[in-house]
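INTERNAL TRANSFER SHEET
From: sequence group
To: structure group
Subject: Glycosyltransferase N-terminal domain-containing protein

Please process the attached sequence and return the structure record in the designated field. Keep the field labels unchanged so the import script can parse them.
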Amino acid sequence: MASNSNIEVAVVMVPFPEYGHQTPFLHLSHLIASYDIPVHYVSIGARNHELKLRQQAGYQLFPNIQFHDLSIPENSSSTEKEEEYLSYLESLNLLGGPLGDICRALLLSSCRRVVVIHDSIMLSVVQGMISVANAETYIFHVISAFTVCSLFHQVRGNDDDQDDDQHLLFLPFQAHLPSMDSCYKPEMPEFVKILRRWTFKSGDIFNTCRDIEGPYLDALAKQSDRPIWSLGPLINNVHIVHNNQESSSSSSSSPNKILSRHRCIEWLDKKPKNSVIYVSFGTVTTFSPEQINELALGLERSNQNFIWVLREKDKKGNDVMTEKDVSKTKLPAGLEERVGERGIIAREWVPQLEILGHPATGGYLFHSGWNSFLESVTVGVPMATWPIHSDNPFNDVLITKVLKVGVVVREWTHKDELVRSNTIENAVRTLMTSPEGEEMRQRALDLSQAIKISGRDGGATKKQAESFIAHITR
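Return from structure group:
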């Protein structure tokens, strides 16, 4: 790879300080840093600390990336009550001043241009950069192009002069698309309108690729007078996707490999190919005791091998989950004894990408989170979808209706209802043992192969990365 170290351009990353947002920003940082461009990662100190702890398995070092630890009032991030969460969002504006100071200091040193890449949620934080000479901003969307396109479509006014192409794009799935009001807080429609009309930017970046979302990237590009780059999937094996190397599904070559192998990997080694379903609902979801009971019974009755990550949702400022944190989660009496070697219930951190990439893993039951979807589709694993909140229901439509690499467990229209064990059992069996599930698996494998080819030299995704680097270092 050609060196760009003499370009005197610095990149400043401004993620929204929550793990699901910070992770893709870190992966993008590594991609940019691989082109010998210095990257400055700016976020709340406690979130930076948690991020680095979590990523140690995938990135032992952070070369060419400098972390800047900022702070906001501590009590602003210690609650989830809606009014205080809004106060937390407002308090993030306090990061604008320090961000400007960092950028000006870089421009006073050796940099002739500062490139600020920020989360779409951080619009108000970066707006002060308009007064900084030789600085330009780019929005990095950590949700799918399908979701952004859907949200933009929902806030279109009757006086909008946009043609009907977007309407036709969503028409086949109109009956399945969720309303914005059912997924987000009441403030979301106004925010989407602001985001759609935002002009203080030099372009948009998406964590996706054309093989996954080509039509929706095209629709967004048609609406914008700024360039759009699709640089994904940005996951822990970003160097495999973008650096012309073959990835392998074997656990021995996983980029998440650590010195001592996790017990889940050792257990997977003993299982047949495509015989295990991996169950995990991310870091911000906690089910009711009743729902946990139904899920446990559904997995047991499916008679499939499974790994179930059962943790309380992560607490801000407390990255390390202890047995005390998860002891409240009760399972049906005798479940673990009855399941025996057929299942693992993990109450600790697990190497998710390594599990998904293992040959024994044949399905993934999850919350339809975008980062997790990208991990699963990159290694060719089909999914069982159970959307929980925000962009999950939009991703669910993309996964099950557009790409057809997944089966629905819980329809979003029934989001307030208890999902019964027989529904879970049937969905797991469909994914793991039916001809329909095998067709989904083949489509997922085909898409995985297309993604890998796209990331090689000469591929569309590799060209997108080269185009973006050339643009910011021009």
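Handover comment: Residues 305 and 341 are 8 Å apart (CA to CA). The longest strand covers residues 113-119.
Transfer complete.
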